[in-house]
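Our collaborator T.R. sent over the components below with a one-line note: 'Predict the complex.' Nothing else. No constraints on interfaces, no templates requested, no preferences about which chain binds where. So this is a plain run: every listed entity goes in together, and whatever single assembly comes back becomes the starting point for the next discussion.
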Amino acid sequence: MIEIKDLHKSYKMGSNSLHVLKGINFSVKDGELVAIMGSSGSGKSTLLNILGMLDEADSGEYTLDGVPIKNLNETKAANYRNKFLGFIFQSFNLINYKTALENVALPLYYQRMGRKQRQEKSLKYLEQVGLKEWSHHLPSELSGGQKQRVAVARAMVGEPKVLLADELTGALDSTTSYEVMDLIQKINDQGNTILVVTHEDDIAHMCKRIVHLRDGVIVKDEKVKQVRASAYV
Amino acid sequence: MFNRDRWKEILEVLTSNWFRTILTSFGVFWGILILIILLAAGKGFQNGVMADFGDIATNTMFMWSRNTTKEYMGLPKGRRYNFKLEDVQAIKENVPNLRFISPRNQLGGFQGANNVTRGIHTGAFNVYGDYPEIINQDPMTITSGRFINHSDINEKRKIAIIGEGVKASLYEKGEEVIGTYIKIQGVNFMVIGTYKKKSNDGDGEEGQKQIFVPFTTFSQAFNRADNVGWMAITAQDGNSITSLKERIVSIVKENRKIHPDDKRAVGYFDLYEQFNRVESLFGAMSFIAYFVGILVLLSGVIGVSNIMLIVVKERTKEIGIRRALGEDPWSIKTQILMESIFLTIISGMVGITFGALFIYGVNALLDANGPVDMFLSPSVSLGVVLAALVILIISGLLAGFIPAQSAIKVRPIDALRTE
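Returned assembly:
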């Protein structure tokens, strides 16, 4: 699904340049649930941003589902993001003047899907994350866990090839974190490919594979025995 | 572009901070209001002045004789002369594209003595000997009876058409006028018609105190022989009298033995030239109205642009999220532009509405208090409103352009990081 070869990325900070990713080689197969772990500054967020086409690598190859990702203009990148990827952010990033349902429907709107169809589909995904009754509430009326579940529904609604989650439990307490992870595991059970960036060990061990990143290189890439989050809920 | 979600979003964004939106739109509102009021005031002034021209055919010149100022062919300077009927004929034959030539003789005039009597009533009126065509050049409404016709001219009938003002001074209220006789300098004329002239300024009353009799009758009754005191000459549409003037005057000079370079011997007034001057004055006035109005509007537009920039700045993160979810930059740009155009058009429409109400109020006041000199029914035409709308759309686009550009200039990844 994802193929990365010799990925380099550096940031210019005034006169010095900061080499963040120093040759990453890495691939993800269909249906995997991968945690990318590392302390802050290890380059894990940069890697995720490049995978998410929000940022571009200086050199190296990136292939997503057989499509080479390079030299994208903004319109094309937006199009690919919409078709291939679902994002889940640490700070939820819901649009605060739109209801839960409208937030979930956004990616479909950008796909130019009809209004009625869009609402039906969004409602179905909201139901899957257990928030059907909350569909007409604004984000400000939802709890943190609920917000993140709306965000998960929004990431899923466009039926993306890969789900990218950046510290998705970073702003949640542990009980809520486990609830969200339970949801992620269930989505993965349905065969969806998910990448989770985290620095929390317990969250990482709820995935099927952990990639350790330190100072811009992969130091360890291991398959782990998955801990089911449902055990804690 | 015209889908429901987009409009919903535009309304959500603009109504999220009512106070700010209203303050912003006030600039545009004010600009368009000033523009409309300036244009309406200009139009009112124009209507007022044009009404003074009345219904007079504007492609007309008036010509009268004066004293010569140069010796010519043995004749002294300072000689008093008269136009003759043969001059009228010569002009008719030699100048093409003329519509009417009306020679006229006149009795009475400014502060003239009493010259008309009827029973115990007397009055001082202007008495004109005219041809039937004069009614096309100096229009009047025949309120009863008829005007002079060619049979009257040929048969030299002693008939008169009197103004409503004459009727008021010579007749009792409700008295039958048609068929009665009035005595003009000792000669009896039968009244066969009354008229009323339209004019809204000081001449109005004077205009109603005239008496028209057939030219030929006048000449015979008052011993004018073949003299002509005055001529009104109207050119055909499409030929300005100004261009024919030179030719007419030179024919008259030749016939009357006046030195060709004598500039003062023939007095004339070119209404068309005056009319054009006034027209171009109003052209300049509406240019100034547009200029000032648009400049005021421009400052409003800059206000909108400013607020849109702030809105975009505030929504940086939201725009980042939407781009991460796959909205393409063009769609975001369109959104911002539409918000800006929508805001400008709505506030502009309110401005136009208020302007219309204001004009309506002024008109109501004018109607209630009677006519005012040089000012009549200020108004703006539909064309002006459409022009204002086009100006609004363009200014909305201009106002939104820079903010829209800045909205997509920030990379989504940076936009997402802003808090």
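Summary for T.R.: The interface with chain B takes residues 49, 52, 54-55, 74-75, 78-83, 87, 89, 93, 95, 97-98, 106-107, 109-111, 115, 154, 158 of chain A (CB under 8 Å).
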